[in-house]
Amino acid sequence: MAEIAPSILAADFGNLQRDVELLNASAADYIHVDIMDGVFVPNISFGIPVCEAIHKHAKKPLDVHLMIEKPERYFEAFKKAGAWGITMHYEACTHLHRNIENLKELGLSAGVALNPHTPVELLTDVLGDVSLVLIMSVNPGFGGQKFIDNTYKKIARLHSLREKFGYSFKIEVDGGVNLDNAPLLVREGVDILVAGSFVFSSSDPKGIIEQLKVAS
């Protein structure tokens, strides 16, 4: 059974505390926090103060996903804002190994995300150092996008590398996750499902989270 990380980006920001408390009372395992800078991705979401506000009410670990340039500038700030783990993009890091080690030194779960066009094989030299690999199943920057089918093959290759070398990192997938593709993703090796608009656009978000768990 997969873990579920609802993306708070899809919540009602006029009722943020209410939606965080909804997730607290749900079967969710994490709260996924998407940070966008309008540079690395063509959208701006929110920053450190909103992360702090989420953490103030959250009883689930904050799974912070930095879709930003030079993410290492903000590791300490997001730790102080309540991050349990930080996932940065391979495509945004010149010194990826150094950044991974910095996150671990801060006591954070260290994750690396890959855009749809980036092969998993480019992470071969750091897979033994990370806690999490996030596969983007849509192009990052906006919610509600259609799932990219090539993601299944990509996850299968990543899972094969994990098995071959005996690594312990978790595989997370983000983008277009629903009740139809959740079991297929888990079958290929996914451990954590991120779902945003699919959860929060539902009339019963808690029920959808439970259904995602059961379906996977």
UniProtKB/TrEMBL annotation:
Cofactor needs: Co(2+); a divalent metal cation; Mn(2+); Fe(2+)
EC number: 5.1.3.1
CDD domains named in the record: RPE
One term of GO molecular function: D-ribulose-phosphate 3-epimerase activity
Statement: the UniProt record of this protein carries the keyword Metal-binding: yes
One Pfam family recorded for the sequence: Ribul_P_3_epim
Function: Catalyzes the reversible epimerization of D-ribulose 5-phosphate to D-xylulose 5-phosphate.
Protein known as: Ribulose-phosphate 3-epimerase
Organism from which the protein derives: Dyadobacter linearis
Lineage of origin: Bacteria, Pseudomonadati, Bacteroidota, Cytophagia, Cytophagales
